Each structure stands twice: as C-alpha cells, then as structure tokens.
Amino acid sequence: MKRKYADLHLCPDLGNDKQVTRMIKKASELEYALIAIPLPQNFPEEKIGKLQNICQENKMDFASRVNLKPRTPNELIRSLRKLRRRFEVIAVMCESKQVARQAAKDRRVDLLNFPGRNRRKRFFDKAEAELASNALGSLEINMKPLLTVEGRARIRLLSSLRREVTIAQKFQIPIVISSGASNELLMRKPREIAALTSLFDLDKSSAIEAISKNPMAIIKRNREKLSPKFVAPGIRMIRRGKDC
Amino acid sequence: MLKKTRRRYLALKIDSDERFSSSEFISAVWDAVLKLYGEYGASRTGLALIDYDDAKSFAVVRCVHTGVEIVRTAVASITRIGNEPVAVHVLKISGTLKALSKERKRSVCV
User: Tell me: the pLDDT tens digits for A116-157?
Assistant: First the structure.
C-alpha cells in the first residue's frame, strides 16, 4: 500500500484566498495526502468547509488545527476545555516552562511545539519528556526555521533539535515533522524533509514515520473521538434504536 | 584494487518565476553543500552539473551513490539563488541518464 504523507502545519495567510489555494495545490503536487492549517479560534464553520472543498478538489484530506499560545497553565486548561471538541489537532506553543509542563501532561494536547530559537527557551528536557510519555502528546518540529536561518543561528538550532530528538526517542515520544511553511517556496517534498532531518540525526525510517504514520495516527485518533459514535476509548456506538 | 565508482543522476526542478544561468544554479548547490557539510563533506559527493535547461527550470546533476543523501539534503535547503527566493525539488534519482530522460519529457509536458 502506498504510504500517505501529512503536513500538519501549513501557515498560509488566511486572508489571502489566492495564496491559500496556491499552497494547497502545491501540497497536492508534492504528494501530501493530508494537510492541516492552523485556524483562529473563532474561525467560521463555512470557511472551514470552503478549505475542505479546496483540498477535496486537489484530492487531499484537510484537518482543522488550532495553535494555542497560553501565558499560564490555567489559561491553557480553559482553552483546551473550550476548543478540544471543535478542532482535530491542538498544538501548544510552549513559551514558558509552566505552560510546557502542563501541556505535556494533558491528554487533550496533540502536539508540543517549542518555537523559541534561544536554547534556554526550549523546554523539551527529560522531565518534560517523562510527562509527555504518560500522555498522548507528540513533539512537533517545524522545518521553516531550519530553512530560513543561517550560520550560527542554524548551528544552535540543529544542536537543540539533536538533543530534543534524542530525548524524545529515549522516552518513546512520537515525533511529528511539519513544514511550518508560510509560502509555497518553503514547502518541500516528504522525502526532502526526511533528508533534512538527517541534519539532526533522525534516522531515515523514523523521519519517514514522523511525516506519515505519526501525524496520520493523531488525526485518526481525534476523528474517532470527535465522531458522535464515540463513547469512551475502545467503546463505540454501533447502532441506536428499539431492537438494541 | 580501486573500486568502480557508482554514480547517481538527480533530476531537479527549480521552482521560481525567475530564470537563472547554469553557473548561478550550480553555485547555489555547491554553496548549500559547503554550508551544511563543509569542504570535507563536499569533496565526497563528486558533484557535477550534467544538464541544465533554464527555460524549463530543469537540471540534472551527478554525484557518487554514497553522496546522494548529502546532495538531496543540500538541494532541499536551498531557499535563494542570488537574491531571488526559490525551491529546488528532486524529481527522480537514477543510475543512468536514460531513465531520467523520461522524467525530463514529463516535466516538459507539465
């Protein structure tokens, strides 16, 4: 069976319809089967439907995603309570240690993203990994910073990513590689992304899983949970009626 | 005894509205290899430009089979040629130029 690739972090300017269409078309050309675009929390349902239609026209699947940037753990908990049933993917941009710890132990969080370039602001350490290994969160790595920075900044970034990948593998935390692309020239083919991950010592099979199996598993799990037939993990409603 | 070098040919597509000369293109590839792997790494790739068509934004480069991943990574890391933003995608990798000619025809049709 042909492997399906996913990019869970495409960042087009949602106000620019032409750019959104161009990027979705490009993702289809680059052989992705599924994409997710981070949406504002109050994004109208009809616009989500429109994005789904564009993806369908390009023979791709679309997943709704929200990026949370809470300042405190309580703010994160409130946002999760409000948004978990509305979006298929929830990513937390961990900009403080307290938020990172709360996100790692909360089973409603799908992706842990550490956007800071400063090594001290990347909070994915052993303690964080241990918390995440007991929950369902995956470590998300965006390729955009790797492509856009150069010189010492890239050296520091690669060194941080190498350390994070080693910790994630040691604690068996799934890794998800996304493009984080804000225009089509920052999008790469899945195999090219896998090649780029060799820069931070992610082996080829893990890299391929990080752009295919791991993101697909998140979407499958969440779609199952969001379906009206879902009762509890492992329990699904098969039929409703008098003869049951 | 000296081992016969196994070569690989990479068909590349340059994604940009601008046109570039062959020297600008291969310089960008060399720069990317040098930035990521240094002179030692670059010396192990056996990189050479075989064919370049600026009108169709299509290129073929050659490298040794052990250097394919290095070249693929370097090519994926290219974001600019000169001052113009670009993306370079690998269309196909083959051991013979004959197999790549089909890919070229397809890219011409597109």
Answer: 777 777 889 999 999 999 898 999 999 999 999 989 999 999
Give the integer Cα–Cα distance in Å for A99 and A178: 22
ipTM: 0.90
Q: What is the pairing mode between strands B48-53 and B80-81? A: unpaired
Q: How far apart are CA A145 and CA A142, in angstroms?
A: 7
Token pair, residue A99, equals 């938020």
Assigned architecture for domain A6-226: Alpha-Beta Barrel (3.20)
The full set of domain ranges for chain A reads: 6-226
Which of A31, A188, A200 would best serve as a mutation to test chain B binding (most B beta carbons within 10 A)? A188
State pTM to two decimals: 0.90
| Strand pairing category for A175-178 and A230-232 | unpaired
Instruction: Reply yes or no on whether the pLDDT at A240 is more than 90.
Output: no
CB atoms within 10 A of CB A243: 4
Residue B89, token pair as written in the block: 């995608």
CA dist., res. A194 & res. B69, Å (int): 10
Size of interface A-B (CB pairs under 8 A): 43
For chain B, residues with pLDDT lower than 70 are 107-110
> Given A146, A150, A198, which is nearest B69 (Cβ)?
A198
Query: Contact, B9 vs B61, CB < 8 A?
Result: yes
Cβ contacts of B75 on chain A, cutoff 8 Å: 192
Looking at the partner chain, which of A146, A192, A199 has a beta carbon nearest the beta carbon of B89?
A192
Contacts of B36 in chain A (CB under 8 A): 199
A186 touches chain B (CB under 8 A): yes
Distance CA B46, CA A141 (A): 31
Instruction: Give the domains, in start order, of chain B with CATH numbers.
Output: 7-109 (3.30.70.3250)
Q: Which residue has the tokens 């693929």?
A: B72
Q: Which residues have C-beta within 8 Å of that of residue A39, sequence separation ≥ 6? A: A14, A48, A64, A65, A66, A87
